[in-house]
Amino acid sequence: MRLIRQYLKFDLTYISSEIYKILLSIFANSNSMMIIFVQNLIHHNYYNLMKKIICGILLSVSMTLLSQIRGKVIKIKDGDTIVVLLADKTQQTLRLAEVDCPENGQAFGNNAKQFTSNQVFGKMVIIYKVGKDRYGRNIAGVFYDGDKYLSREIVKAGFGWWYFKASKNTELQKLQDKAKEKKLGLWSDKKAISPWEFRKNKKARVE
User: What PANTHER family does the record point to (predicted)?
Assistant: First the structure.
């Protein structure tokens, strides 16, 4: 109950079934990185109503609803897209939440891909799915080596942009600012452009 009281201070926008499950896993594991992760999935100001709903769920829903999945990383498609092998021998492509890395063919694209590979390739990771992107890929928070949050490590090292369009994670914003100040990774290039700008320009050239 102490954890519930402590972490129900967030402003709330929407509470989906996926977020319910992640919240449950937070209080089960007391994982500080997951607390940060969930803070940034919840966006609006329905505090009084949502507080009651969350409390009810946390107290009454079985812990078997946890959305935590484990898998082995078997392929790195690019800096923010990985393929994992699950226990049932199926493969899933995961788009990392809260980060956008340079595209393949874009400056620092290979560097970002190599950084992600160095972090997780061949390792067992913990996966928290939070939705799907327009290509049907699962969007997920990926944790490894204990409580390292992959998206956070990418931004911290300067190999990806904090994807502010789908995240309110102010910690990632601060880490990005620090990486930029230190000229880490892609920030060593003063002319570095974001992946969404790169994609937009590429599409315009094709048209």
Answer: EBNA2 BINDING PROTEIN P100, SERINE_THREONINE-PROTEIN KINASE 31
**Rounded Cα–Cα distance for residues 169 and 27 (Å):** 19
Catalytic residue among 95, 152, 153, 171: 95
Give the pLDDT confidence of 166-181 residue by residue, as tens digits: 888 889 999 999 999 9
Active site residue 95: yes
pTM: 0.69
Residue 202 in domain: no
CATH number of the domain that residue 79 is part of? 2.40.50.90
Same domain flag for 57 and 103 = no
Catalytic residue among 103, 152, 153, 171: 103
* Strand ranges in 53-175 using DSSP code E only, listed in sequence order: 68-78, 81-86, 91-96, 99-100, 124-132, 138-144, 148-149, 161-162
- pLDDT tens for residues 36-78? 555 555 544 444 455 555 555 554 443 334 468 999 999 999 9
